[in-house]
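Consider the following input, taken from an annotated entry for DNA-binding LacI/PurR family transcriptional regulator (Pseudarthrobacter niigatensis).
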Amino acid sequence: MAVTMNDVARAAGVSLKTVSNVLNDYEFIRPATKQRVQDAIAELGYEANLTARSLRSGKTSMLGLVLSDLSAPYYAELASRLMKAAARHGYRVLVEQSDAEAAAELGALHGTFRQLTDGLLFTPLVVDAEAIAARAGRKPLVMLGEHIVDPRFDLVTVKNREAAAALTGHLLAGGRRRIAVIGADPGESAGTGGLRLDGYRTALAAAVIPYDPALVAPAQWRRDTGAAAVAGLLDKGVEFDAVFGLNDVLALGAMHELQVRGVKVPQDVAVAGFDDLDEGRFASPSLTTIAPGMDEIAERSIGLLLDRIAGREPSVQGVHVEAGFELKIRESAP
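Applying the prediction step yields:
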């Protein structure tokens, strides 16, 4: 027969309410009483019925996180930091991978996944704001990234434009004048890639250097496509003395291709990225990059979501937060 809360209460010599308070981490319990209850729980092997408890309280102490691809190093690192930030507040995180598919992104907004969580951290790449607004329901939701910037939704993001301008400015200060950009379309203006490309163009304009769309190479944000994009520029005879990969894996792929082709980094071509992934620090040469304040992103997004859950954030309009960044100068672009 399963052990009940009544069994725990009898063994500890306390009331059923006291056992409930201990299980729910009620703040004002004498340490000795709390210890007796915990000892009884351990001795009897009691396991709380979390489903029943959540039905009574309306809270699950779980947060949802929807990311497109957990194999992407940036998303993996971000997920880890979000989980740690949530744990500091007594919450756990359920993760859903959408594979950048509309059905999966929309499916995370309702149904079992949504029911199991008190709030959602959401990184949409496919669906639009109207589709999300129609299905978001009443539980709090905080957007991550720049795919959707809408006053109806809370958003935590990075200062992409300013960070890209700072990185480009560093390359220009090092004497580079033909800076190739990997990972954007020449006319792109929205989303993460568009913002970073805009920052690049802003820095060029400040240095009175013309923007050349021939230096902008579209690529999905992976190592192999970064390598292929640089190979394409070399094969076309496009001259460049620096590469700005719009994320670190693009930059690392580009650097690999340059080295295979006998192009010296940074002597012939400087290389820089964006994200400050661990593998960039241990590359040879180590990668100059932008550290996008991932810890701040995690703390601010978790804090904002929990404030919404607890009703501590009074704003009806969405709150937009931009985390800071740091330029990490290393061997690939000193």
